[in-house]
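Hey,
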Amino acid sequence: MHGFGFAEHGGLDRIGFVDIAEPTPGPGEVRVRVSFSGINPTDWKSRGGATPRPVDRFQVPHHDGSGVIDAVGPGVDEGRLGQRVWVWMAAAGSQWGTAAEWTVVADGQAVPLPEGASLELGASLGVPALTAHRCLFADGGLTGRTVLVAGGAGAVGHFAIELAKHQGARVIATVSGTAKAELARAAGADLVVNYREADTLERIRAFADRVDRVVEVNLAANLALDLGLSSSGTVVAVYAADAADPQLPVRACMSTNVVLRFVLLYGVPVADLHSGVTEVSAALAAGALSELPVHRFPLEECAAAQDAVQGRAVGKVLLVIG
């Protein structure tokens, strides 16, 4: 089959064409003919060695994707053949990511895509939607609560807004400019604030004197704002790390009785991941999730596509494969 991968960790120059035998699904597995491969920051970070794992001959990157099941392994219902699916965490502990014509995953990692949901949307879910779900719901329901989503125009922020609204929350989103503000509003945010403006805290407090949950993309930059909106029981869920670690003002954190939660999907209990998949799928079937603007790259431009993600392209970067 045709695909792209790397034989050792490193820079973009490590990514190259691989021509290998198509994978065969084992017991409890399915093979997916990939249509789109979704790229996330974790993919280029893993290629660079941030997620240390030995490479056995080759590694096809990317966790997320969409396509059609064309083979099933022993123990899997043959009725799954021909199903349109979205794929999550394909490359976690496996050589077979989605940057190739086929990928093989466990049966539960290929999730039926409802009628009306595009393959592009399916390939965009995975890491962003499951991260958003974990940040939002690991500490309970959100009906009638207020959520602050930092970086509301990013992929995680986009799905966090939509999932929170679907579950009955009021949502505030922070962004860095006009175009991103439009994306956050389109996702359903009730209030959108440019965090670069001096009156950010005051504008949010005029809308809500406290928040119950914060979905945080940059704790070092935003901790003061988060604490200014927190009180007993507020959970700040952090899912990304910039170069600078925050200096934690312990007394201020104690005074607000804030809870800090750190989220990385690789370490989330499997049962919780599957619960997230179930709830994301339900929101998808209800029409509550939508596409971000898509940047399409052909498979042979895999390195350029990863570079676009590393350069913080606004929207979703997809490889077009099948």
